Amino acid sequence: MNTEGRVYDIAIIGGGVTGTAQAYVFTHFVKGISNVLLLEKNENVALVNSNTDSNAQTLHGGDTETNFSLEKALKMRDAECILGAFLEKYGEGAYRRLYKMALAVGADEVRLIKERFKMIHSYYPTLEFLGRESIARIEPKLVEGRNPETEVAALFRPNGFAVDYHRASECLYKEAMKSGKLDAFFKTKTRAITRTDGIYEIETNNAVFHAKAVAVAAGPFSILFAHSCGYAGEYTILPVAGNFYRTRAVILGGKVYTVQDPMFPFAAAHMDSSINDPSAMRIGPTADVIPFLERRHWATIADFLKTGVISKEGLRAIFEIIFRKDEKEEKRKVLRFAGKNVVYKIPVIGTWYFLKKAAQKIIPTLRYRDLEFARGEGGVRPQLVNMKTRALEMGTGKIVGDRDGDKLVFDITPSPGASDCLRNALVNAKKHFVPFLGSGYEFDDKKFTEEFPGAREAFGRIA
Ligand SMILES: Cc1cc2nc3c(=O)[nH]c(=O)nc-3n(C[C@H](O)[C@H](O)[C@H](O)COP(=O)(O)OP(=O)(O)OC[C@H]3O[C@@H](n4cnc5c(N)ncnc54)[C@H](O)[C@@H]3O)c2cc1C
Question: What is the phi/psi pair of residue 20, to 5°?
Fold first, then answer.
């Protein structure tokens, strides 16, 4: 490959859904950009956490995620609107429209979602509050066999999305290629990013590339690049893997989430039909801390050890997070939670425990023999740990490298990173890369809003 002398406007490291969304936005909507580089270590886009079965296939819109603050919910409403608009135009085969539900079981959870409905319903015109009878009308299996004394209620929205993020990435990539401005190199692993005279040198296993600015969208590996460029030294990563179970015993028509504990926003199981096999339901994910930056890739244990977790500060932060008592309930909730997820891993007993603790909360009549462990499914959520405050920071993380003329953005993307991919790409383009690149570069607001008129308002909220 001859790239000698070529200086790309922007290089993107990582071809998951975060990287391909940026490739699409940079090549289509930034005036002045003439060439963008995409480097991916695998042979195709989105084969890691954005792969079809690595995640829960949900386009989170903020309505049925009971742990989101109003601010976060509205941000995700915008994310859903923007990615939804792209999918409806260019994403044939990458998504399905279906209902989304947050099921509350027991008086406390019912109270919680009643309050939540009051707080958010004016922002979601199609959101409904359902009592037991209405739930039974829509999905009788959610009520059948349930103790009639147990209160149940649900938040329900008929028009959500299930997404195959692998295919969505392929669509984003395909559209980016159509611009004629994207050079993509697969089986090309970035080893180092350095800067000389204001230009970034990107060393890979195949060649050395040059760019004026770099977007690092390498999932959990983004933190290592941030560290090597002198940023985010106070952060490390806790890789939280998620496993799924499958069943063909009960088929639901939509996505049924349960009420999330705000302390573990990634943890409460949900159930929906698999996007690539609607005759099977997926239940999960579980949450399981593993020492890998990439699931089932043993070599990435060495990468995990480089994240700073095995330093005095890292170990102290992890220890405190695990053993800290919850302020309200005076319980060591993280320890209990971790314990529960360890039990899930024990053969036979684990499946039985998952059935009792998670699956039957959704479908009370589900039996042990109905559940099958979905081997090979589920990726890693790179949860950020702040070693200074010794706290887990939930949600996606963005590190902007703009010191001393640097032009770097590192995205670290636990859930709901896939849902936010296109909104995030717009944020990166408008707020970071256009100012980084300076005069001669401009975001083309008019082109974007003409392309996606339905996403005009959501786009307008990106400053
Ligand atoms: C169990 C589970 C359930 C989830 N459910 C949802 C959900 O329902 N909805 C949702 O929105 N999100 C969900 N998520 C999160 C979602 O999967 C991620 O936010 C999203 O896939 C992140 O995309 P990404 O492109 O940033 O990272 P990835 O998909 O991990 O892509 C990173 C890419 O970078 C490449 N790369 C890494 N290092 C290098 C290097 N050195 N050189 C070149 N390339 C490199 C990798 O090969 C990979 O292709 C879930 C995650 C898990 C684990």
Answer: -70, -35
CA 388 to chain centre: 25
pLDDT band for position 328 (cuts 50, 70, 90): low
Work out which ligand 1 atom sits closest to the CA atom of 217. Answer: 26
Residues 331 and 442 both lie in one domain: no
**pTM of the full structure:** 0.96
In a domain, 156, yes or no: no
Q: Ligand 1 centroid vs 227 CA: distance in angstroms?
A: 19
**Picking from 83-97, 245-259, 320-334, 418-432, which range would have the lowest pLDDT averaged per residue?**
320-334
Q: Which of 347, 365, 392 is the last residue of a domain?
A: 392
Give the dihedral of Cα atoms 170, 172, 174, 178; nearest 10 deg.
Answer: -170
CA of 17 to the centre of ligand 1 (A): 7
Among residues 222, 170, 169, the alpha carbon closest in space to that of 413 is found at 222
Judged on CB neighbours under 10 Å (0-12, 13-18, 19+), 405 is exposed
437 within 8 A of 213, measured Cβ to Cβ: yes
Any ligand 1 atom below 6 A from CB of 397: no
Six-digit token pair at 111?
Answer: 């109270």
**C-alpha–C-alpha distance, residues 173 and 344, integer Å:** 37
Rounded to the nearest angstrom, the distance between the alpha carbon of 300 and the centre of ligand 1 is 15
Q: Are residues 203 and 64 in the same domain?
A: yes
- 435 and 368 part of one domain: no
pLDDT digits over 109-131, tens only? 999 999 999 999 999 999 999 99
For residue 265 and ligand 1, the question of a CB distance below 6 A is answered with no
Counting Cα atoms < 13 Å in the Cβ hemisphere of 161 gives 27
With a 6 A CB cut-off, is 415 part of the ligand 1 pocket? yes
Q: Give the domain extent around 206.
A: 7-93+165-239+394-460
Residue 13 CA, ligand 1 centroid: distance in Å: 12
Given ligand 1 and candidates 50, 68, 77, which is best to mutate, with the most ligand atoms within 8 Å of its CB? Answer: 50
| Residues, the chain | 463
Query: How far apart, in Å, are the Cα atoms of 250 and each of 112, 132, 220, 247?
Result: 27, 19, 35, 7
Q: Please name every residue paired with 10 in a beta bridge, in sequence order, or none if there are none.
A: 36, 213
Q: How far does the centroid of ligand 1 lie from the alpha carbon of residue 85, in Å?
A: 21
Question: Does 257 contact ligand 1 (Cβ within 6 A)?
Answer: no
User: Is the backbone of residue 376 left (phi > 0), alpha (psi -120 to 50) or beta?
Assistant: left
Residue 282 has phi, psi (to 5 degrees) of -105, 135
Query: How far is the centre of ligand 1, averaged over its atoms, from the C-alpha of 7 (Å)?
Result: 27
